[in-house]
């Protein structure tokens, strides 16, 4: 299985040197609730929903603290933004309940929420100005580039440690690399690697804002920085070649045509009488239209972030849980998450929105199930639907799964898009 293949890429040595092995020092590390309260302090966010308008008004005055040019900001090193945070599931059993799933392992959706909060705090650490307690920047998640797991099970009764730092910087955006480790027999062993991209905006979250440049100090850091640059170019290429913009390749067209021929009903005598319209499902297959699940979420104030929009981590958790349920009902056995990639946050979700989620199995191979979750908000006043996110999840099932088969041209494009995502993931692990 992929988990044996997934030998964890060695942690960049700049981080490895800082990582403490064993339990020593874990008691002094901040935990997740501290991460969230630090974020509220940095932004000056209110914990009371009724006071949020006032708190946001006060942020407007911070406009004057924004840099006019990136060159005016002091450069930072990778270690300046390096953070370690503990999730004390072993030493503080009272927090376990929130993280527990029915299989007695950790809910991955909760981990997505924690990674999202930590990524934002790392960026605020990178951009912190000494004399200002409050940051004029609104830092939000632009996309989750990838999260690759190399452990099938995350245990609910062993401490978890998150580490991370800013790994690449553009003019208004920052790439953050994070690692999650879990304590076993006195040692922390790797569970996952995550790469997020955050963007900085003005105090009202309306326009882009400049961030401190990043200066690599060692050959390893140069390498990490270069990788960030490559990641950006790879994303541009992937989006340029999107099936929404360009026709499939010759090879992909052949795949779709083969699937189509495979579903023609040839029971009628002779080729001349075979109709393009009469289709039959090949053995051990499922039509794509029968491999979807839908969900609805009312976005309450409890799920808001420090800018009083709906917290990106919450959206990721909800999408993951629907994706997992889609894979579970499709494969008929418990699926395990292998990878999350290419989550674009296209627009913020306002408190009070109706969030519509739809999960679709779009590609399968052996035990693997590729699920795409589309999320959109419905505005009851204007009756308009607007896409907010597309999520891509790769699951592995305990048993081999049936083939998913597209019927329409639109489904065929979803199938090819799923196949592309799956191929990119397999290359990684």
TrEMBL record:
Instruction: Please give the biological process terms from Gene Ontology that the record holds.
Output: acyl-CoA metabolic process
Question: Which GO molecular function annotations are given, in alphabetical order?
Answer: carboxylic ester hydrolase activity; fatty acyl-CoA hydrolase activity
* Stored PROSITE patterns: HOTDOG_ACOT
Q: Which domain of life is it from?
A: Eukaryota
Q: What does UniProt give as GO cellular component?
A: mitochondrion
Does the keyword Repeat belong to this entry?
yes
Any idea what this protein is called? Answer: HotDog ACOT-type domain-containing protein
Native source species: Balearica regulorum gibbericeps (East African grey crowned-crane)
Which lineage? Eukaryota, Metazoa, Chordata, Craniata, Vertebrata
